[in-house]
Amino acid sequence: MKLLKTICVICVASILFYSCKKDEKKELAIEDSATIYIKGTMDAELTSPPFVPAPIGDRPAKKLLVKMEILEKEGEMTDGVKYVYWTFGGTVPGSFIRTRVGDEVEFTLSNHPDNKLPHNIDMHAVTGPGGGAESSFVAPGHEKTFSFKALNPGLYVYHCATAPVGMHIANGMYGLILVEPAGGLPKVDKEYYIMQGDFYTKGATDEKGLQAFDMTKAIKEDADYVVFNGKVGALTGDNAITANVGETVRLFVGNGGPNLTSSFHVIGEIFDKVHIEGGSLINENVQTTSIPSGGAAIVEFKVEVPGTFIIVDHAIFRAFNKGALGMLKVSGEENKKLYSGVKQEGIYHPEGGTIQTMPDNNQKEIVVNTKEKPLAQKIAHGKQLYMTTCFACHQAEGQGIPNAFPPLAKSDYLNADVKRAIGIILNGKTGEITVNGSKYNSVMTKQTLSEEEVADVLTYVYNSWGNNKTNVSISTVKEVKNGK
Which domains does the chain have, with CATH numbers? Predict the structure, then answer.
């Protein structure tokens, strides 16, 4: 009997040993990405932000053909502000590339013949000189091809590395490439592509017209705009990303820089999982994750209640005043056990680049001489100013916020005295006032606006929401400034 037990123990031990050795060999084979066998060829699916290609699933490693064109093109940074972007694939960030460990990637980079400058590409997923930059330098009207083996799983940045490198990146030349592990990432319901970047313009934040790149500001790291996906509002309103209650969302998040680190946060959500720096290490239950310039992260979370969830760089002035703000709109049934309360619209909306200060009646203002515009043009410009400067407090239809900020719509206080309204914008206001029979005792911050901007925004307000249709002139604004 003892002999039989001994034999059984030896057999079990042998089986376990053999199984462990087999698993060890299997793990070694998986880790040795350089020797993974290639089965066939396929064209890469490339997508523009915020969308990503289909997951790789359990497909075998292949020769993956990637073709990308560089385009220098004029686009809109924000309302009324144009900028010439340098792009991979025509968008900022560039096209999303999805591959897997073991793929042999044949990358062809073409430079559109209408472009002015040579470019190249440095891919952080590449093991090789310059990440491919030394093999991809290409003049307008030409193309270059190089190949690499995808060795390491993770989410990686790619960017232009042509001198001056910082200028090329600052003009929008960056994107993400995902290298999935064998078998793919775990399945989720929704996936999106978000990339932050900082921009530097000759004009001030929100200064209208075509703005050129400012190298001096860039070297000083004094950004005029910090945005998601290349422009202010790229992920807000109709451009917001979406999900349904109960779904798990995965965000592939990158930071093109060229200078600033991102403090990535979704207001009202907690990241269930964060692939730290886009790699294999996973952290759980994270509120805000740091993404360095030239780095990335994969964040995942389940959305359990409906609403609009605000995506920000939590270096918070960048979000509300420089543009690093997006929206995730979640649809579905309420769950009062998880969250209940009266929802107030207008919370966490962009505020624009207007500088606001507390009231100071002793400070002198700089007078700028400007010419009057046609009424329709004043109203249109005034609406833009209102939506970036006044919207958060006074709301889209001028209804204000009960017990906090007075209404501008059909406002007896506003319509009674135009000069008083001008003075409040120029100097701010503290103390109790009565509007349409209700008392308000809050602070109206002083707005740093030009005479023309004050006239335009008030003209828009007076010509909206049942007000008295006053056309506020620049000369009237000047009179108030001069104490007349």
Answer: 32-335+345-353 (2.60.40.420), 357-377+387-481 (1.10.760.10)
